[in-house]
Amino acid sequence: MKSTLQKVEEIKRQGYRLDxxxxxxxxxxxYKKIALLSGAVILLLTLLFFVVGMGxxxxxGLAFSFTDYLTEYSGGGxxxxxxxxxxxxxxxxxxxxxxxxxxxxxxxxxxETKREFEFSTAFMHYKTKHFAPLFLATALIILASSxxxxxxxxxxxxxxxxxxxxxxxxxxxxxxxxxxxxTLLTIPYIIFGDLTxxxxxxxxxxxxxxxxxxxxxxMIVFFICALLGFFAFCIGLFFTLPIFISAQYIIxxxxxxxxxxxxxDEIGSSEx
Length: 272
Description:
This is Membrane protein. The protein is an all-alpha fold. The chain has one domain (25-68, 77-257). The protein is built from 12 helices and no strands. The protein has helices spanning 4-14, 20-67, 71-74, 77-112, 131-158, 162-182, 186-191, 197-210, 212-227, 237-240, 242-255, 267-270. The relative contact order is 0.16. The model is unreliable at 69-78 and 262-272 (pLDDT under 50).
């Protein structure tokens, strides 16, 4: 049986077929099976982060009111520190919730392969061997995608030029989007291909780059579909967002055909 890395090498050499119509059809079929459960998980997380976030804002509000006067003497130092702290916090938060993204992909896989899944399935990867690579890979991706933007904001604190700011802002957005798209399949490669963080990132970049523009077009289509949730008093958005989970899984499954008795069947028995 070929290893995951051997299959990735084949993708690198030969590419793979990705039909837009088929992916859209398969995605919607999968989405119908996971929408309620995945939407409930996303809604719960949103409420949790809102409550925690309000508490943090209250604490930081008191802290910053005490230190505001320091900005008069620190030039851009205080602002730069705040931006770096924000990057660190953002990286930590995304890395900590990466196992939930993996769990929702697990739900999509179980639904597609007619395996059982439940609410707890979305949180299963906090207890598996994949937690560490999920955390590390997500942290590296966030640092790469957001790091340039943070550096650009820090530079504005010392050297402000309107034209340069507009160019750097546009460039940072493009870089962030490109990294996000290219690393789209990192988590699937970790939990379904059993790769390390760095190998999964490399495998994702290789795979996505082979059908880069098709995948971007698909993401635009699914983004428009997800926005339809706003018409249901915005609450519906939580139940349309899971279409991205289904799309991520279906794109991976089309790019990387998975054997029925591959690593996937060993998830429940070998990762604890």
